[in-house]
Specification:
The chain is built from eight helices and five strands; from the N terminus they run E-H-E-E-H-H-E-H-H-H-H-H-E. The protein is mostly helical. The chain has a domain of 70 residues. Strand 2 and strand 3 form a beta hairpin. It is elongated. The two termini are 15 Å apart.
Length: 154
C-alpha cells in the first residue's frame, strides 16, 4: 500500500478482523499485516531448529512486527465495544435523566454490563449505540494514525 493510508480501506480491514487478531500498519509505506494470537504463540511454543526455512522466516517476520517501532498496532473494534469509557461517553451524550443515572450505575456495578446492554435494547438505544461506537472507533483509529505521524486520506 502507498501512503497516505486510505481510511475507508483501513476501516474495512479492521471491521473484518476475528477475535484474537490484530492489525498492524507499517509506518514507512502503509502496508497492513494481521497478526493472530496463534502467530504470537509460535514465538514461544516452537522449536525453530526443526522447522523449514519458510516457517522460520514467517516467525521472524511476526517477531519483527511485534518489536519494531516501524509497525503500529491499530485499535480493536471489539475492545472499543467493551470499553467502559466509550459506554459512559455515549450514555452522557445520548441519554437523559433518570435513565442516565440508572445506566451509569449499571455501567460501574459488578456484572452490570449485560444488564446495561439489555436496558439499552429495552430503551431502543441499540442503533444510536452502534452509530456512536462506529464513530468513536473511527476517531480512535484516526488518533492512532495521527499520533504515529501516518498520513491518511478519508
Amino acid at each position: 500500500m502507498v501512503l497516505p493510508v486510505s481510511l475507508p480501506q483501513l476501516m474495512s480491514e479492521l471491521s473484518i478482523l476475528s477475535s484474537g487478531e490484530s492489525l498492524y500498519i507499517h509506518k514507512p509505506d502503509g502496508d497492513f499485516c494481521v497478526v493472530s494470537e496463534e502467530d504470537v504463540s509460535l514465538l514461544c511454543d516452537v522449536d525453530e531448529t526443526i522447522l523449514p526455512a519458510a516457517q522460520i522466516a514467517f516467525i521472524d517476520g511476526i517477531r519483527h512486527i511485534l518489536i519494531s517501532d516501524d509497525w503500529i498496532d491499530m485499535p480493536s473494534k471489539q475492545a472499543m465495544s467493551e470499553d467502559p469509557a466509550t459506554l459512559e461517553a455515549f450514555t452522557r451524550a445520548k441519554v437523559k435523566p433518570p435513565l442516565l443515572q440508572q445506566m451509569l450505575k449499571l455501567l460501574y456495578s459488578s456484572n452490570g454490563s449485560q444488564q446495561l446492554l439489555d436496558l439499552m435494547s429495552d430503551e431502543d438505544l441499540d442503533e444510536p449505540w452502534y452509530e456512536y461506537q462506529k464513530e468513536a472507533f473511527r476517531e480512535a483509529v484516526c488518533d492512532r494514525l495521527k499520533a504515529n505521524n501516518i498520513p491518511h486520506a478519508t
